């Protein structure tokens, strides 16, 4: 792979390759010495224009466990705050000899621009761009689903026949978009649950079933996976629902809803969680919950992505 920019254009074979490679990476993380020499001599830059905890630390851990040199770049406190353009920043990274750039940016399409601009020769990995996509989050979610639903040895498996219900702020969620495209490619049936105001324009033309009632969606879809999304208040510039109390009552995942799920059903959340709003503490901390597993699995998936992008000769864009 040359770059990893989205899941919409990711083929099924490439998706399964990443997931299976992540299985290999996960196995190495059970050893006393977790580091691999695979990317020794390579330099990975974490170029983050937005705040992040899980994603940035996960990518840093992944790169270091592959023995890469890591440079963490935050827009705050850098020349970006003085007005430096993405082009000039990219050319600076090129001059520093960056082999891979992990970029998070508030503008949708910024990673694709960086990858196609000619400003830098490095492989580009999208760590979230605006409300567009967050491909490694979807990949780690799929990795977690495979393991929970099919056991630890799920190599080569897709998600054919799996029912996934994604609930909440779909309109502002790059996680929801990336999951929709990836899970559909892997054969899963995806449903969105949200108030009309939190559905993106054109969502009904996507390969997804749309519900407004969470209880109806659970009853009709009989999901294997319920994925809750964070309310992204930082991206909201208007009132999308009357108040938090009403949102929690209608679309929050509480203890009663968790108790009514089928035994096999798992509960997911990409984090950070707003407990009591999107999800109750009882549901978040239950045996059904995969929240912490997702964090752990994220390191293995990002190791796999970095390995496939940087370990050999890079071919065409993927």
TrEMBL record:
Name any one Pfam family assigned in the record: OTCace
GO CC, sorted alphabetically, is: cytosol
Q: Which reaction does it catalyse?
A: carbamoyl phosphate + L-aspartate = N-carbamoyl-L-aspartate + phosphate + H(+)
Enzyme Commission code(s) on record: 2.1.3.2
First-tier enzyme category under EC: transferase
This protein's pathway: Pyrimidine metabolism; UMP biosynthesis via de novo pathway; (S)-dihydroorotate from bicarbonate: step 2/3
UniProt binding sites for carbamoyl phosphate: 54-55, 104, 134, 137, 271-272
Which of UniProt's keywords are assigned here?
Pyrimidine biosynthesis, Transferase
Q: Known InterPro entries for this protein?
A: Asp/Orn_carbamoyltranf_P-bd, Asp/Orn_carbamoylTrfase, Asp/Orn_carbamoylTrfase_sf, Asp_carbamoyltransf, Asp_carbamoyltransf_Asp/Orn-bd
Record has Transferase as a keyword: yes
Family the entry assigns = Belongs to the aspartate/ornithine carbamoyltransferase superfamily. ATCase family.
Q: What PANTHER family has UniProt attached to this entry?
A: ASPARTATE CARBAMOYLTRANSFERASE (PTHR45753:SF6), ORNITHINE CARBAMOYLTRANSFERASE, MITOCHONDRIAL (PTHR45753)
Q: How does it assemble?
A: Heterododecamer (2C3:3R2) of six catalytic PyrB chains organized as two trimers (C3), and six regulatory PyrI chains organized as three dimers (R2).
Any idea what this protein is called? Answer: Aspartate carbamoyltransferase
Source gene?
A: pyrB
